[in-house]
């Protein structure tokens, strides 16, 4: 946790802004949906005030926003987001393997997916070119 309350509120506000952006909503639209004034909502995103619990619960209920991530940040896992990213990666991996005619044992394919996923969770993006290199190294 941050040393000063403002640091925490600033980080909390940033995560609220990210969640709003992921929803594709303007500040005004989200404030209206939550039943709060635009000015109050803006103060939450700027880290000037703490967002009320009622507004957080409303965000979760209406938009399925991950409150663990909003409140705790990188310490929490955003399960639906992470699973969707892993599924997208596996589809791309399978397409590449099929298109290139490459055969990999399931253990090797699993190792590639696990390594990519671990890097994803750590916030380190792995380019598909690097994944292709891994495949060449593991090719049967």
Structural features, described:
- This protein folds into two domains: 8-72, Orthogonal Bundle (434 Repressor (Amino-terminal Domain)), CATH 1.10.260.40; 79-138.
- The chain is built from eight helices and no strands.
- By secondary structure, it is mainly α.
- Helix 2 (27-34) crosses helix 3 (38-45), helix 6 crosses helix 7 and helix 7 packs antiparallel against helix 8.
- 12% of the residues are buried.
- The longest helix is centred in the middle third of the chain and has 22 residues, at 79-100.
- Residues 16-70 form the HTH cro/C1-type domain.
Give the helix/strand layout.
Blueprint: H1 5-23, H2 27-34, H3 38-45, H4 53-63, H5 67-72, H6 79-100, H7 106-121, H8 128-138
Helix pairs in contact: 2-3, 6-7, 7-8
Overview features:
140 residues, mainly alpha, 434 Repressor (Amino-terminal Domain), 2 domains, 8 helices, 72% helix, elongated
Figure out the total of helices. Answer: 8
Distance between the termini: 47 Å
CATH class of the largest domain: Mainly Alpha
Question: Might you state the CATH topology name of the largest domain?
Answer: 434 Repressor (Amino-terminal Domain)
Which structural class do the helices and strands define? mainly alpha
H/E topology pattern: HHHHHHHH
Question: Would you identify the CATH H-level superfamily of the largest domain?
Answer: lambda repressor-like DNA-binding domains
Runs with pLDDT <50, length 5+? Answer: none
Instruction: Tell me the domain tally.
Output: 2
CATH architecture of the largest domain: Orthogonal Bundle
Mean pLDDT: 85
State the shape. Answer: elongated
CA-based gyration radius = 20 Å
Helix share bin: over 70%
Question: Beta fraction of the residues?
Answer: under 5%
């Amino acid at each position: 946790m941050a040393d000063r309350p403002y640091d925490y509120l600033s980080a909390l506000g940033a995560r609220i802004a990210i969640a709003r952006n992921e929803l594709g909503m303007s500040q005004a639209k989200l404030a209206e949906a939550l039943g709060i004034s635009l000015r109050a909502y803006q103060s939450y995103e700027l880290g000037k005030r703490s967002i009320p619990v009622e507004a957080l619960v409303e965000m979760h209920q209406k938009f399925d926003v991950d409150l663990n991530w909003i409140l705790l940040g990188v310490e929490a896992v955003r399960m639906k987001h992470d699973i969707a990213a892993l599924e997208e990666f596996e589809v791309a991996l399978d397409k590449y393997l099929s298109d290139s005619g490459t055969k990999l044992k399931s253990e090797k394919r699993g190792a590639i997916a696990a390594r990519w996923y671990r890097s994803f969770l750590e916030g380190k993006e792995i380019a598909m070119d690097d994944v292709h290199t891994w495949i060449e190294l593991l090719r049967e």
